[in-house]
Design goal:
46% of the residues lie in helices and 13% in strands. By secondary structure, the chain is α/β, with parallel strands linked by helices.
Amino acid sequence: MELRDRRALVTGAGRGIGRRIAMELAAGGARLALLARTAAELDSVAAELRAGGVEVCCCVADVASPEQVQDAVGRVLDAWGGVDVLVNNAGLQGPIGPMHTVPVAAWLQTLQVNLAGPYLCARLVIPAMLLQRYGKIINLSGGGAVTPRANFSAYGAAKAGLVRLTETLATELAGTGIDVNAVAPGAVNTRMLTETLEAGDLAGPAAAAEAQRQAASGGTDPALAARLVLFLASPRSDGLSGRLLSAVWDRWGDLDISQVMATDWYTVRRVVPPHHGT
């Protein structure tokens, strides 16, 4: 029970990866504040957690709305006096297709949810974390964050921005006891997969074929991402900050944190050829 009495806020907690993360943190002993747009989905997750004796509160809010985030997170802070763990999981894939053809409003909305949402939540919980000199902020990255992915420009741009926000915030908060990291969960079968399959030719032949393979294989087990989030939320990861870790490919369970923090490992950096500029 390494998170005993820790106060954890998980956005997008009504289904998919967010639901699995909430269950994992609860199993670790945390109290849970669940935030999502759909009350019925939150109620279902909360009922399951409460049946296991977990303290849960639910907040119906859209992370794209500053007013709704202020109200929802403000109520959690008023009730608990602070948050020890923030998991920014809420997100959407957004429009699929060549960038110049997709609706402008949908493109901008994707950035608002996937990038501005984590910013809005983090800025509210940081003051109390600073006072207690401890906190964990964990952002869910995704496909296209570090590799270009044609026809998914809004999603890729937002997730790339979220990784750089993670690194920047970690630098700002260095030495405060607050760790900020990002998680690449892998190709989990969620509603985004269905949207890609339904997009057909708009997704492009490579993405469409990959989506079909993922659907046939069952995709990545969301438990992998949930276990990585638990690690990053726990004291086992104290001092690890500003990193993007893959739930599937990285051996995060046996990291030498001091060694990682002395290098650029698990970061997004520009790599130049040898003898560049000489």
